[in-house]
């Protein structure tokens, strides 16, 4: 641990140096330079968030938990899954923390550790990605039928009219489109899955 | 002639067909030449990023690598879909900002014989190209049917003006570009305070109650400002506000009817193009009344067949009487 950091943490009145392993792990696994360690706990993010009301923790609270090393609680929080990727917090954050990208990282960590508490959102993402990996394009009808039948069959009757409208207006394709060089894409993704972002 | 490499994105061939058709219709008057990126793939939307980082960026970067190979007198990729635009821009930006990411992505791309150097391409959105390259004067000069008297709420959504890595937009939260474009068509543009608020994104699928509230706020604000119609530049926004407005109404016991179409559709009709060719009639919340205000008749597309005997379809317990439905006050007995 760097000397300056020891002084800082002890100056803050802490009995022992902070354990920033979790914070660093998340920052490192996030695309770009996340500035996560720069968070000053001002709360602009939560105050800007259109869906904060449905979150277990505001982004600010979540980042405090990261700093405190509360791995279990962070990965179980629904916050990243409720994030709508609107980037309001990102452009307002005075420290330029890449909040939305940190949320993506936390989601992928929760999936890997199987800590999410509601299986709907990760399953939706995984079903979507499955279609893309198979065809190279998204396939809305396939995604919708598989996802709704598995997770919310009771919502289907209410949506029948809308779905029918989308189909008759040809806004939903009956068959998927496959890209020509799907083998190339598969080779790229296969290789990519063996790689991880480190410092 | 303004020429661009073109990344349409999956929605343009499906749910946002009206966007694609109207874009094709306004290309000749704007002298806009688009060369589709050969064999492009899905950008992964907001889904792949939540699962696995390097594959997600490699998926996006394959498109960038293909586009860079195809450079044909232009190094600009134009994407009309917000999510696609952001993903392409983000991959290009982060691969440079974080060299480790660039290296890993290129290691993956190499497995398919591809390579991409960040910074090779300019990633731009359709609205940006129309305003800054083609110009509002050119747009004005093509208007033969001004949209006089049509009250339009410009709705940009999130992912184009934010985070805006390349600083191309006038403001993150209240940009004026779409307003200016609609004014050039002669429309009466309302100062829409929620022009970059969120439509709920994929929450309509995975957390509908979160999404319904966001949709309600937008539609209610547009109605309060007495808009006849909302225009958007994002397939996801259009889909959520159009296709889920009915469900939102049912959820809150409201009765909003706010049509939402793509800005290119209004450009097309202002240029004198037939509404049907401009993709009108494909929206689920009909824009017929709005178009009647500028003296246009919208063709009725094939109406969806009447639902089977019972709206609930499968044998299920009887729904509660209407007055107990969620979002409605219980009537006095």
User: Briefly, what CATH class of the largest domain in chain A?
Assistant: Mainly Alpha
Number of helices, counting only DSSP H or I runs of 4 residues or more of chain A? 12
Poorly predicted runs of chain B are 329-333
What overall form of chain A do the CA principal axes indicate? globular
Q: How many separate structural domains of chain A? A: 2
What is the 3D form of chain B? globular
What CATH first level of the largest domain in chain B would be assigned? Answer: Alpha Beta
State the strand order across the main sheet of chain B.
Answer: 2-1-3-4
Q: TL;DR?
A:
Chain A is built from 12 helices and no strands. Chain A has 199 residues and is mainly alpha-helical.
Keywords:
heterodimer, A: 199 residues, mainly alpha, 0% strand, B: alpha/beta, Glutathione S-transferase Yfyf (Class Pi), Chain A, domain 2, Rossmann fold, 41% helix, 10% strand, globular
If you had to describe this structure to a student in words, what would you say it looks like?
The complex is a heterodimer of chains A (199) and B (333). Chain A is an all-alpha fold. Chain A has 2 domains: 18-112, Alpha-helical ferredoxin (Fumarate Reductase Iron-sulfur Protein, Chain B, domain 2), CATH 1.10.1060; 120-190, no CATH class. Chain A contains 12 helices and no strands. Chain A has helices at residues 3-11, 21-28, 44-48, 59-67, 71-76, 79-82, 88-92, 99-112, 120-135, 140-151, 156-168, 182-192. The model of chain A has no long low-confidence stretch (mean pLDDT 91). Chain B has 333 residues and is of the alpha/beta class. Chain B has 2 domains: 2-125, Glutathione S-transferase Yfyf (Class Pi), Chain A, domain 2 (Up-down Bundle), CATH 1.20.1050; 145-292, 3-Layer(aba) Sandwich (Rossmann fold), CATH 3.40.50. Helix content of chain B is 41%, strand content 10%. In chain B, the strands form 2 sheets. A 4-stranded parallel beta sheet of chain B has the order 2-1-3-4, with helices on both faces. Chain B has a 4-stranded parallel beta sheet with strand order 6-5-7-8, sandwiched between helices. In chain B, helix 3 packs across helix 4 (99-110) and helix 9 (208-224) crosses helix 11 (245-252). Chain B is globular and about 55 Å long. Chains A and B meet through helix 6, helix 7, helix 8, helix 9 and helix 10 of A and helix 2, helix 3, helix 4, helix 8 and helix 9 of B.
